[in-house]
Amino acid sequence: MDIIKEYGFFDVMGSMPVIEQILELSDEIKNKLSPYLPEDVKLVQKGLMLYRQGLVTQLRVEQGEFRATVQDVTPAKVQLDPEFLRLSKCSCPSEGLCRHQMAVFFSAYAHKDSVADWVSEWREPLRKNMHQTNLATAWGLKTAKDLVKSEGALKPDYSRWVQSFEVSFNTLVGGKKYTNPFIIPELFEIYLKRIRASAPVEKEWRLVYELVAAVVSFRKLAVLSDELGFDEQTVRRAYHHSFENLLGDVEEIVGKMGVQTLPFSFDKFIGHLKDEVFELLTCTKKGLEHERIYMHRLLWTELFRKKEWRQEEAKRIGEHLKQLEDGENPVPYLVTRIHLFFLLGNDEQALELVNSVPEEFITPYMLLWIEDFSAARMWRRVEPLIDLFLQQLRKYTDWLGSYHSSSVFIRKALRAITPFCSENGRVDLFERALLVMLPYSFADYEHLLLERGDWDRWAELYALVGLGFDDLGKDRVKLLEKKRPELLIGMLHQAAQREIDQKNRGSYRMAVRHLKKLRTLYKKLKQMEEWEYFLTQLLDRTKRLRAFQEECQRSKLI
């Protein structure tokens, strides 16, 4: 307490909040820096040297930050944010955490505890792992960095690759207890840079290496999320983009491999990789369902093409489904198994299994399969999928809830089924789809009916979705006057009655406008007797509505 007062901390913030900030900052820095990385070790040493030389001055707490000046070769102004370390600033040209920020941290930490003890505690994991590291070396297992030093680059050895990825991940990312999930993506990027720097020089082998690295890294990061107990919302906010980037990398690599002739020596690696992809699918009980499915679906579609491999994978997933653990989500296994059945041409088995997956999950995948078969012009296989898709679509849009989300999905669905309907002359199926997709498909359905000149069904569509004369644009009104004025008469009758039922002066004026339009149409059709009869009946029914009668007289309707 006396030390804190002496340095002015107590006067600014109060002793307990400052101590808590120091501890929070300590945890952030321990999570960010690794005792295994030489550059991190040098950073700590340089900061320690500046602090021990007494070069940190004017240390204070302002606006929740530790601020000070470090008298280096050029004085550096430092602002340390204990809550979000990445928002800290230093006037020196270094990017990220620098030696001046470390010196200020040590100066602040000294008010709470021994700096030497902090450094010793930070280095503790390195000492604990020394025996394990020596043992791994004895077994011939080296980290990616060690291999680069000794051999220039990793040799094509699948087991050694995976071992190096796992050791690097455990060292740089997985060996810490995180309280702040936003630190993970920074460390994960450092890990990715390290393993990419160790890739083989040969272009072909580099692609395989990076593909294996992406799959293993995805699995390791997913397992880490489970171990840390972060919920799905936290993961999505903090580092879900890391998973998305890996998926993008895999898609790009597979695309490059697809346009190259791969050597036969790759077959063994691809065989190992398919087992790795199964582990990725089963690495977590729940969460990242769509991402795991996407990775599995992509690789089994584009890379693992042998029929016997696909049969074995479908069987293995089926066996796993029989022995799911409590709380394990079966959906990823069901969807990937359905996809494998489609790849094997077992459409009946696939469609039968579709019914066992909730509509809110399976419906978007059905759209993908429709697109895949349509692109390959496998029209015989498309029609049963479209039929089943339309049966489940209403439940899916109800589940989406949002009108905007449903509209966007319906646009995609129409684009997906249009090629089949167009190529096979199935206007009936397209119209059925438009009916199922209402009200989101209203514009497309109306356009179809107008093109076909089906005015009666067009009128039914307007009534079905609750639209009337007031919803018609001028172009529609002119078209109806020319093509089917009797339909316009019916809509005007309904519109006028709705306005009268509102019983206010403004609505009466609007009702009279509709009635005058009606009179013009009756006259054009030479049906004035019907008009006179209708108007007489209307005025008789509304004789107690004095304001409406006045509006009729004022407009010379009477």
UniProtKB/TrEMBL annotation:
Entry keyword set: Metal-binding, Zinc, Zinc-finger
Keyword Zinc-finger: yes
InterPro entries tied to this protein: Znf_SWIM
Domain of life: Bacteria
Domain SWIM-type: 76-109
Protein name per UniProt: SWIM zinc finger family protein
Top-level taxonomy: Bacteria, Bacillati, Bacillota, Bacilli, Bacillales
